[in-house]
TrEMBL record, chains A, B, C, D, E, F, G:
GO terms for cellular component: cytoplasm. This is Co-chaperonin GroES. Together with the chaperonin GroEL, plays an essential role in assisting protein folding. The GroEL-GroES system forms a nano-cage that allows encapsulation of the non-native substrate proteins and provides a physical environment optimized to promote and accelerate protein folding. GroES binds to the apical surface of the GroEL ring, thereby capping the opening of the GroEL channel. PANTHER family: 10 KDA HEAT SHOCK PROTEIN, 20 KDA CHAPERONIN, CHLOROPLASTIC. Keywords: Chaperone, Cytoplasm. It comes from Fervidobacterium thailandense. It is found in: Cytoplasm. Belongs to the GroES chaperonin family.
Length: 89, 89, 89, 89, 89, 89, 89
């Protein structure tokens, strides 16, 4: 199932980072903060001067967007306005 | 009874997916989450560059739109702005 | 008494449908949901490309508009924006 | 004391209708609903295509406007936008 | 101390009217309703077609504006938009 | 440390007036109302026709702006829109 | 990991000042007020006439922006509109 965002929206895959306590114990998902990093999976109709493309990693407003499942995986459909920054490795 | 949406609205038929527990038991409607997938049944006056047409499957904001019954079936009249993405099978 | 809506408003007469329980008992008005269907009785100054005219049946946002009585009958003065769709019999 | 509304406002005199119970008892003012009918007493600077003039009877949004007393009589200064319809006897 | 309002604002001096009970007892200030009448003391930069000038008496929205004391006297700095009407004696 | 406001903002120094009770007792700061008078210390990029300049005394909306300390002194960074009037001695 | 803000946003590093009680005791972080001073680390697409650049120190609205960690250090991604002033040493 391919999901094509409409208008100035993007489909992103949140990056859940392994969190360890000081003692090295990996925190369960629930105890982790909502992820703020994600990878762009699909884009809608973005402005021409927008520097984002499929595959880029971004920082996004973690309280925004609509969570959806595609083939049992978690994704978010989010407005361009809620993408705060691009991560340049 | 044919319902023709006005302005930038669409008439959609929610797609309710069968939900099974891990043990394979089909969940009753009430226990299911509000559907987010739907099929477009009728469109109002959409912008020319809008990629949506009758028959397309979409993902929509499940808390938006107005629920109506037509011949005892559930439909939703929804603003174009609350259609998040198009599903390309 | 003739009531002529001002601006982009319409005067509509709600269509209250008889509701029967499974056992065929007609529900009293109070138990019924607020009607969503109505007939257009009078129009104000609507945009030229608006497809609505006196006599048309419509679906409207049941929480909108202002209820008024004219000669002891119930009517609603409502903004064009709260008319969701036109019913084509 | 003459009161000249400013901008797109009108000075209206609410029409309080005598209300009788089924048994014909005239309801005291307090038991009555807020009036929705009024007569236009004075107008501010209304748009040229506005069909309203002093003396016209109108239906207005009963929760809008500012109540004032002029020579012990009740009036309301109200925005044009809160006048819903014109009554044509 | 002269106070010159900025932008589309006015400096007004509320007119507190003596209120007498039916029995002729003058009500203390506290028991009185907030005044709605005032005289214009100073104006800021008003639109050219605005009919108001220093000395005019007006009716204003009693919940608007900012109360200030100048030489122990009460004044209000208020937006033009909250002046509802002009009083023509 | 010199603070240069950005955009249509000003840096102002509130003028705290000595308040005496009827009996002549100087009120402690806490008992005083928030000051509404201030002097302009620095301006950002104000519109050309704006009559305000460094050194002017003004009346401002006491619930607006952001309080900051510069060298242990209290200042406020405030939007031009929240400056209500200019004081002309 | 390099973070490039999108649109009219900036990446800033809050400046946490050592706070001492009257008796000279350094306050723990928690007891301190949220910082209002910061240094600009990276800028997005700012207007041409904007006087801010990487390295500048600024005063910002401490309740705005999104806190993020980069290599265990605290940063904030903030809208240009929430930068109140530039500090000129």
């Amino acid at each position: 199932m391919k999901v094509k965002p409409l208008g100035e929206r993007l489909l992103i895959k949140p990056i859940v980072e392994e969190k360890k306590t000081a003692g090295g114990i990996v925190l369960p998902d629930a105890a982790k903060e909502k992820p703020m990093k994600a990878q762009i999976v699909e884009v809608g109709k973005l402005p021409e001067d927008c520097p984002l493309k499929v595959g880029d990693k971004v920082i996004f407003n973690k309280y925004s967007g609509t969570e959806i499942k595609i083939d049992e995986e978690d994704y978010i459909i989010i407005d361009l306005n809620d993408i705060l920054a691009k991560i340049e490795e």
